[in-house]
Each structure stands twice: as structure tokens, then as C-alpha cells.
Amino acid sequence: MRLAETVTFGGAGLDRAAGLRGDPEAVAAHLCAGETRILPVWRGKPLFAGNAAGWLPPGHAVLAEAAEAPVLLGLEGGAARFAVDVSGWEPPAGEAPAEGVFFDPTEQRHPALPGDHRFAELRGLMAELAAGDAELVATAKALLGWHRSHRFCSACGRPSAVIEAGWQRRCPDCGTRHFPRTDPVVIMLVTRGERTLLGRSPGWPEGMYSCLAGFMEPGETIEAAVRREVAEETGVRIGRVSYLASQPWPYPSSLMIGCLAEAESEAITLDPVELEAAVWIGREEAARVLAGDHPTIRRPRRGAIAGFLLTHWVADRLD
Ligand SMILES: [Zn+2]
To answer: How far apart are the CA of 157 and the centre of ligand 1, in A?
Structure first.
């Protein structure tokens, strides 16, 4: 797909500077250089300044909340970009985050920052970010989230330590190295002639439908995962599968693999655990969904690959 990399988080050619990671002195020099910028992330929420990423200069008071060294994201025009976890900070009274919800609408403001700076859910602002910031923020959120949930060695259970400027953890006890994980998910634009298949999971906001999707399993090809997920959730049989586009999806650490899946059957048999409803809709009906003009199906959230695939299918731009 020619437009594949125009998806949100599609990347902007960030120089990830992998050669620097194993050089602690060079990393330390970049960490205090005047042109360096550091992005704080608080309990999974990046800092925003207006609708842009909230980059701070080295030495800023907010960065003193960090418990571990910043991770090196890469270089932009020779200037280093880092991210740091400041989850230890306690927000002011009345700004507590919402727990256990799909989307936390609350925002937290640090007293040392201007009024337009706040920690906020990336889901709500991801489509506003410029491509360069989007890649950096997605990388920061996924990498710091991995560190927060992988503090202990999975081989021996002892605490592990950050090495390689944040791109590995190593167990001081048994020497095992651990690498940041990325979990592949297939997401399918299922088509049958001029119609496509959308589904909704139990518990989703009213009117929300999306392309079918599911985690890949060990030992499975992308094609096999697409066929299995569609068959499990709807009973629809898939023939030819082709790759369209991918999207890093840092909630917490997925890679969405967008595919075109050509259906060979139409009858729907729902798996009620996975899906509450599934419908075939035509191109014109899909255009109404995208325009926010459909009576029962709401417009997809901006930034997610499902809406991106649907938009380009309606416009006949999947080539
Ligand atoms: Zn170990």
C-alpha cells in the first residue's frame, strides 16, 4: 500500500542512534547537552504542551521526579531525544487519574510547568501530533511501559537492571538479557465484493464498531492468524490475505498488522465472548460511518488503523 506509512505512528524516519546505546559516556554527554530534550511520562501518560509533545530541557524540575535514568529515543538533527518515567510524582489533590477505564479523560498538571502543559492519555491526542513527535512519543510510551512491567528477571526472579540506554535489561544475578517486547496483532479489512465486515466487542462504547482483530499466536503466520481470528469470531471463511500497512500501537506494546482479507463466505456465526455484533456494510454505508452520518455506527476514533484502512477502502486507495 503506497500510503501505508501515513498512518498515525507510521514513522518519520527517526534516527534511533543504536550505535550510541552501548556507550555510557556518550549517552551521559548527550543527557546534559543544551540542545537535548527529554519527554516525561507519568503512569503511561506522556506530557503534552498544547497538542504537541511536552519536551523539557535537561535539568528541569519535573525530571527530578524520575527514579531511573532516561531512555535514549534517538537523534533529531543531531540533538538527542530522551524519555523518562516520572510515575513517582503525586498529582495535586483533585487531579487523581481514573482507574480501570478504557479511556482516562483526566489530566494532571505539574506545578513547575506552564498552564498548557499536562499529562494526558495519548489516545486522545495521538492524531494531533506531527509525524516526528508521534514516532518519538509512541516509542517512549511503549519502552517505559515495558520497564515498568518487567522489573524482574523472568529466568530467576531477581531484580534486573537497565542497560543499553534503556533498550535492554540485564539480570546481575544470572546474566540473562531481556529485550523490549512488541506484541503482533492482526487487524483485517475483510471484504466480500463491495462490502466489508465490522464487529463490536462487548463493553465497547455504544455504536462503536471496528475491523476484526486479534493477537497472533506462537507458531502462526500472519495469514493463518487472519483466517483463524475471522473464523473464530464470525465463522466467515477467508481466502486470500494480503498485507496493507502496520501501526505501532503503544497500548501497551502492540504492532498492528493491517491486512486485506478476502472472504469466501458471508454467513455470520458470532462468538459471543469475543463479539456482541458483526455486520456487513457496503462502501456507501461505510462512507456515511466515516462522515459521522450513520444512524447506528459511530465514526472510528481518529488515529487508529481501523479507520485508516476503512477510509482508504472507501476511497479505493489500498494499492
Ligand atoms: Zn536472572
So the answer is: 6
Rounded to 10 degrees, the C-alpha dihedral 168/171/177/182 comes to -50
Burial-class residue 273 by CB neighbours within 10 Å (0-12, 13-18, 19+): exposed
What residues pair up with 279 in beta bridges, in sequence order?
198
The C-alpha torsion from 201 through 279 and 125 to 63, rounded to 10°, is 30
Sign of CA dihedral 240, 245, 248, 251: negative
Residue 151 CA to ligand 1 centre (angstroms): 11
Cα(126) to centroid of ligand 1, in Å? 36
C-alpha 159 to ligand 1 mean position (Å)? 8
Distance 95 CA to ligand 1 centre (A): 38
pLDDT digits (tens, 9 = 90+) for 166-202: 999 999 999 999 999 999 999 999 999 999 999 999 9
Q: What pLDDT, in 10s, does the model give residues 233-263?
A: 999 999 999 999 999 999 999 999 999 999 9
In 3D space, the residue among 193, 212, 189 whose CA is nearest the CA of residue 277 turns out to be 212
CA distances from 127 to 49, 121, 131, 170, 187 (A): 15, 12, 9, 35, 19
Ligand 1 centroid distance, CA of 123 (Å): 35
